[in-house]
Write a structure and sequence with these properties.
Blueprint (H helix, E strand, L loop, with lengths): L3 H13 L3 H27 L8 H36 L5 H5 L2 H23 L11 H28 L2 H19 L7 E3 L11 E4 L5 E6 L1 H11 L2 E4 L6 E2 L4 E6 L5 H5 L2 E4 L10 H14 L6 H19 L6 E5 L2 E5 L4 H16 L3 H17 L5 H18 L4 H4 L12
Parallel strand pairs: 4-9
Antiparallel strand pairs: 1-8, 2-6, 3-5, 3-7, 4-6, 8-9
Amino acid sequence: MLTTFALLRVRLWWERSVWVLPLLGVLVAWVLAQVLVGVDAYLFALLGGQRVISTGAAIALLSAVAGGMVTFTGFVFSVVLLVVQYGSTAYSPRAVAYFLRSRLTQAVLGVFLCTITFSLLSLISVGSSGRADFVPLASVLLTTGLLVASLVAFLALLQGVGKRIRVDTVVSDIGHQSRVMLRRAFPVESGSSRLLDRAADERDRGEVIRYAGRPGQIVAVDAARLLRLARRHACRIVLTVRAGDAVSVGSRVAVVTGTDVEDRQVSRCLVVDQERSLRFDPLYGLRILTDISLRALSPAVHDPTTAVRSLDEVEGVLRTAAAVPLGAIQLTSAGGAAVVPRASWQDVVDLALLEVLAAGVDAPQVTRRLRVLLDDLIADLPDQHRPPLLVYRTRLVERVQHRYPDDAVARLTGDHQGIGGSS
């Protein structure tokens, strides 16, 4: 049975692999071609050699389908790549993973490759079986069916791609993924775990553990494996890095008090990849939403409405974050302990609001949306979550009043729509 760590790596591989479904389409075509060999021979014998379709017509049909689908596939996915490039330019370079992860695009490519491969294999079988007049009737009919399926898949692709590049769909999907990931990454505390006020009180005491592995960014921490390591050595392991941090060989990743632990043993508890993951990194989605807002507020783009739409999702992410146990967590078991640093409420609020407030102070839509966002959260969230929000509201009011003293009231009127939705 796969361990949690191995399963996480498999899921990460599946998320990043865009070639699996297309390759599956080729394999399905090959299997169908092998199965239909016997079916075609049986039908040819059943008809007594009588040809329902002429050999020339079968060759022309199969050749047209194979050649046409090759050209059509190249054209369609050139357009898809342009859409991906547009998405990375219009939203954020980090949004490329969102577009490439579309299973619809991969499935449509699989259908196209299945049609191409099967039609070519069927073309080879025309005139085989020792008969120059042999026509694989079942294969020809199935090729026609696959052609129809490819056309339907093309229409579905147009619908899916057209929907996926819309700003509302992009920010809604990323916001939804962020909320789901926050609930999964910060589960309710168990009896063997407790939250800590500080992430690493023992950071400067004990044996320093250096990273020994492939450089990259930490996608996730296998806390269960880290706790087993601490229990086996009867020690306390305090991680000094968390999901989203970049590490290279020799980077400081932990401090151990108690018995000695090898660097590689601790390093194996970290899932490191070339880029962060929307599915496993709890704050990466919020980072992308912030990037979308910043790009929209840049002088080259100047699209504050997109920034307001992104703030709609940011508010939902903040409400979700306020409902989960944030902060560093300590796990204990049979004489061993492991401390895993995690984002605090202050970290989440800073990521969501610090840059947007600085970039959007000149856009009335953004300041009005930020004002009502902060007012609503301060009114709805528990007392312990209010101090950072109060600081940001004060900062927002001071900056707007300093830069625009004449119309500060209008710019600070809370409005869920930015402009047009105030009471």
